[in-house]
User: What shape does this take?
Amino acid sequence: MIHETASLGRKIELGAYVVIEEDVIIGDNVTIGNHVIIKAGTRIGNNVLIGDLSILGKTPSANQSMSRKPEHAIQPLVIKDDVKIGSNTVLYKGSSINNGVFIGDLASIREKVRIGDRSIIGRNAMVEMNTRIGKQVTIQTGSYITGDMIIEDNVFIGPCCSTSNDKYMGAGNYKHRGPTIQQGAKLGNNATLLPGIIIGKNAVVGAGSVVTKDVADNQVVVGNPARELNK
Amino acid sequence: MIHETASLGRKIELGAYVVIEEDVIIGDNVTIGNHVIIKAGTRIGNNVLIGDLSILGKTPSANQSMSRKPEHAIQPLVIKDDVKIGSNTVLYKGSSINNGVFIGDLASIREKVRIGDRSIIGRNAMVEMNTRIGKQVTIQTGSYITGDMIIEDNVFIGPCCSTSNDKYMGAGNYKHRGPTIQQGAKLGNNATLLPGIIIGKNAVVGAGSVVTKDVADNQVVVGNPARELNK
Amino acid sequence: MIHETASLGRKIELGAYVVIEEDVIIGDNVTIGNHVIIKAGTRIGNNVLIGDLSILGKTPSANQSMSRKPEHAIQPLVIKDDVKIGSNTVLYKGSSINNGVFIGDLASIREKVRIGDRSIIGRNAMVEMNTRIGKQVTIQTGSYITGDMIIEDNVFIGPCCSTSNDKYMGAGNYKHRGPTIQQGAKLGNNATLLPGIIIGKNAVVGAGSVVTKDVADNQVVVGNPARELNK
Assistant: This one.
């Protein structure tokens, strides 16, 4: 089911039962798994690997209870060169995935997200809308990256971390602000960050910590609430 | 692959490689994504949106080690009007999803669950069997809703929350009891609730808190174990 | 799309749009769901149930930023008798799943994992590479089992638990060591284990605890950091 307006490069390896919609543009040397769905307008570079049962370029939707409605005029999903995408992933339109990025199985990335070169989005990790992720960032399996969040270069986020951008927990129509994680900072597994928190450069957050206030550059914090180690 | 006994209404938009089994009933103005599987007997209302690669009406199964076997005589899955269902979801038979509900990508809902009008089940959220969810409830991305749990109207559950219904951790064949979350209560991200806990009306549980005993109406608790704030 | 070199036993129930690659061997009395993909060389026993939209025998891949590259010479995936596999699962090659194992929907198991008889891998649980899981183990919904981990017989891991094997959080090319959970130990929901931790026989870790040092046989620990109960 490849739409006649889709443009495929050379050396395309195509799985079974694939759906490619109108105006999709695919580069050279791309492997497309079985049962993959590529939505209208999606642009894919060269040397890209797409796992089975994945959706690229999904349009956001909402119900009556959601205060934040998805925008209508949204750009196509853009995937650059040498990207590897796992199986059973759901990637929305309006996001850009840069060169050499790796996206694990069962991960999902919402609209208007930017991911820098060679970063890793682990299996089953969820990334919400409007978030910017730098270069060579590692986000491990099962971590939850909220919307309106900034993750700078070389940050390491262990498995099962949780972040939030909604201080008043659904109470109304105010500005959401996710955490900022500065260059080279590291989070241990299952760490919790509150909305708007800033984690300084090269800071370390221990596994299972609950971070309720900003962490300074190079600081190491642990516990619930997180406090500086050995103080 | 649409079974001849299936009944489809008017204005059905049908994706590629869809499987619709016997005795399925679908209303008017329904969009069915690619590679969707609708199991025997499932009933779907009007104005429903079903994302790609989703399964509706799955039959539960078990292995030898499970103390709780799934019941055999189980009703079909019922989906009411104006419901939106994400991609790669797995919804079991025996549950009912009321008007205007939104279910995110990669979510799963087990058998005998009831979900009230306009509630939101976030992406990758998991809901276990026999749980009742009220109206206008928000369950955010990645939260785990155990079985035998009651969530009243207008409750807000942040991302990555975890609940449990099994006090003796698999030790035998006793009655399981999940938490009860009363009207308007809110849970911050990555909060943990122990089995049988009651969270009172309009109570607030801070992010990363571990709730080991009941929380009174309007109380705000934080920490591990969770204690009243500023006390 | 069944490759001509694949060998299927008697009484195979085959869904729609299935892909079975070369040299796959399948026993008798096996049910294969719709849109299932079985990769080259995978071996499946008798009386096996495979849910819809699942992938069996996936080959690992990596990007430039990953210090641990997947091995090239890897054995096929081996699934023994009476195994039940959920929908939307992703199982890698090089692993072995023993008799009577149950794997929930949306779960994923990486390469070189061994799972003993009658164990349960819950819905949306993730298991990383090189991990050994004993017999009659229960891993509940959404738990994260890191790589290089040992889980002995009759262990119970509640929902949403998180483990880690990387003490220096991505800092280099050293040996990773996951936790060891000894016979009969139990973890409450959303517990966090640090790398290399040993949980002794029949020990109990409370819900939401953060375990930063070894736990002795029969000990009960709670809190962040976890300490012996009532001490």
Chain C touches chain A through 38 residues (CB under 8 Å). The first strand of chain C starts at residue 7 and ends at 8. Chain C has no helices and 31 strands. The radius of gyration of chain C is 19 Å.
